[in-house]
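Here is an idea for our session: we take a single protein and study its fold together. To get us started, please write out a protein record for me. Start from the sequence, derive the backbone structure tokens from it, and show both lines together. Go ahead whenever you are ready, and we will take it from there:
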Amino acid sequence: MVEAVERAIGDLADPQRAVSSARFFKTGPGEYGEGDRFVGVTVPQLRMVAKRFRGAGADVVWRLLASEVHEHRLTALFLLRGEYERADDDTARRRWVDLYLQALSAGRVNNWDLVDTSADPVLGAWLVRTDEFGLLVELAEHDDLWTRRAGIVGTFAFLKCGVADATLAVVPVVIDDRRDLIQKATGWMLREMGKRVDRDLLTDYLHQHAAEMGRTALSYATEHLMPEERAHYRSLR
């Protein structure tokens, strides 16, 4: 089935889009996505491929995750997420979560779109279910860019349930990391905390910690505040 999935993706390939995607996802020397390969297939198209191959087993997902082609790995994560969400019991759900964590540790979830499409609805959803977010803190403590981002973005699942504890536990771990993709994820989660849980939690956090935050994280966190509020928090840096 792996070959069939790869063939279905290949049939949709667009060389011009592949060049554009490679540029967009920073695949040049020294960039965060260095060496990643694209064939040029859109996310909606990949979701349709995943839907077509619904029910693929763990071996198929793992082998696709091992591919050097970005779209193969993204499709694998769509398949993994679908199987996790359709699982009948926690034993089955846990197997998919374990596979996800193995893929993350093996460096196969290695670009921001791959992390963002999976860390929240798979890992985060599982941890909400088990009422435990310590693993997200552990992931955020890693130096690896993608592991750390997964720890941050995984807290989104808790925010969607109106719980800010996971985000507030992870943010202090990453607040000094000035890498752009960590900054953006941190500010994004803080902003969502203010929108989905409690605006006062956000403003209280900013009042105490805005001076420690990078410009990008602060910009993302204050995006939906009034202009004068944004100016105030920027002045604290």
About this structure: The radius of gyration is 19 Å. The first helix runs from residue 2 to 10.
